[in-house]
Amino acid sequence: MAISHQNHPETLAIHAGQRFDPSTGSIVTPIHQTAAFQFEDARHAEGIFLLKDLKEGQHGNVYSRMSNPTVSQFEERISALEGGIGSVSFASGMAAVASSILNICRVGDNIVASRNLYGGVSNLFQNIFADFGIECRFVDHNDPENFRKQVDANTRLFWGETLPNPLLNVFPIGEVAKIADELGLPLFIDNTCATPALCRPFEHGAHVVVHSATKYICGHGTTIGGVVVDSGNFDWAAHGERLPMMMREDPSMHGLKWAEKFGKMGYLVKLRVTQLRDMGASLAPMNAFLLTNGLETLHLRMEKHCENASKVARFLANHPKVNFVKYPQLSDGNTKRWADAYMGGKYGGMVGVDVKGAMKGGQTVTENLKLFYHVANIGDVRSMAIHPASTTHSQIPSEMRAKAGITDGYVRLCIGTEHADDLIADLDQALSKISV
Ligand SMILES: Cc1ncc(COP(=O)(O)O)c(C=O)c1O
User: Choosing a second label site near 103 at 20 to 30 A (CA), which of 17, 130, 237, 431?
Assistant: First the structure.
């Protein structure tokens, strides 16, 4: 199959990494449901263990904790779609997020992250990493200079989400990337909610992209997975002083220095070897197969998610039971400007709505929706709704929640690919049940 990274994304989504199986003629890459792989001979086995056989950052296959051909296909495809030099996949988005950071941070280090993050990631950064001795300094990304202000000699990376969930205030990728470049730090972007169909963060200067593949990449709510992609634009060796874990002699691998030995691939090789080999949160081949299938229709689905979400947002904005709507297309100021700059005139599949009746009003809507599933997930072909104040954010005091923009009547809608008129009719009948 003649496929190159010059092909259009829609083409890469179907062909990149595809492995035709000559022994059976199967055009779909088989699910290699095996734990281990046979060595050709003793020299081959020895070479693999010494990482001699590295092709584009892929470890020769030894054991499916580190690599597997079905998983490699998924990794090649997502890295082609993001425009990266390679990727390493994980058992979940959370595992990908945690490993991407633990690969270059240790006790005493700190990271600077946007305050607007998925709740699970905020908790990891604030509480779990604190127990590891890694501090997270949260900043308001509305002023990109806030990132610079928090940096000191132990800062190892910047972190943001392209389209933060649930507030949808788009991250200034280019502005923060510029500051990161000036300081010699890598900018990591969680691109889960935008996906490479709407935004390719590397084109705007980001250095590493992380995904929860569970969401739009999968698209059908069947699979948990995550992935980390490296752009190849960050010179890990040149920044060895800033990122000592990339240049120190690593006792876990014969004392080698990752960035010196593997150059641009150093971060990914280390991620595979030290995080997958030693921490072991590996993506299962069956799950990689399902995620690759999901990628094949990503662009089609995202088109429809965005079209439907825009119709729903405009309907809600004029509804008498609605206080306000959050959707990048309907916002002004930075969010609209950065959405236009980084998401190519598309605004994503999620809509936030603050309804009349505060807490009771929000719960009335989620209870009365008939087509929308009432679940704590996003990025599915099915439409889904949740009331953060009484579920995902219920542990945060009401006043603090409101300050963070999550009011008591706020409902997060994740708009699926059904017909928009059916979704609007369902929302209209649910809103009519609010008694104020
Ligand atoms: C933006 C974002 N990043 C990371 C995650 C974690 O991913 P997972 O649920 O696959 O572990 C999520 C999950 O909702 C998310 O929304």
Answer: 17
Instruction: Based on the fold, state whether residues 286 and 380 are members of the same structural domain.
Output: no
Q: Specify the residue with its C-alpha closest to ligand 1, atom 8.
A: 93
Evaluate: CB of 364 within 6 angstroms of ligand 1.
no
Contact status, residue 178 vs residue 256, Cβ threshold 8 Å = no
User: Measured from the CB, is residue 169 less than 6 Å from ligand 1?
Assistant: no
Helix (H) or strand (E) holding 144: none
Give me the tens of pLDDT residue by residue for the chain, a chain 436 residues long. Answer: 566 767 898 999 998 988 777 888 888 888 999 999 998 888 888 888 887 766 554 557 889 999 999 999 999 999 999 999 999 999 999 999 999 999 999 999 999 999 999 989 999 999 999 999 999 999 999 999 999 999 999 999 999 999 998 889 999 999 999 999 999 999 999 999 999 999 999 999 999 999 999 999 999 999 999 999 999 999 999 998 999 999 999 999 989 999 999 999 999 999 999 999 999 999 999 999 999 999 999 999 999 999 999 999 999 999 999 999 999 999 989 999 999 999 999 999 999 999 999 999 999 999 999 999 999 999 999 999 999 999 988 877 788 787 778 899 999 999 999 999 999 999 999 999 999 8
**What is the CATH classification number for the domain harbouring 313?**
3.90.1150.10
Overall domain count for the chain: 2
**Which stretches of 184-232 are DSSP H helices?**
195-198
Residue 2 located in a structural domain: no
From residue 138, how far is each of 110, 122, 125, 135, 403 by CA, in Å?
11, 9, 9, 10, 15
Domain that holds residue 419: 298-431
**350 and 207 inside one domain:** no
User: pTM score > 0.85 for this model?
Assistant: yes
Cα dihedral 98, 289, 419, 165, rounded to 10, equals: 0
Say whether both 281 and 309 belong to one domain.
no
**Of 208, 214, 227, best ligand 1 pocket probe by most atoms within 8 Å of the beta carbon:** 214
3-state SS assignment for residue 116 = coil
89 CA from centroid of ligand 1 (Å): 14
Q: Does residue 171 share a domain with residue 35?
A: yes
Measured in Å, residue 123 CA sits from the centre of ligand 1 at 12
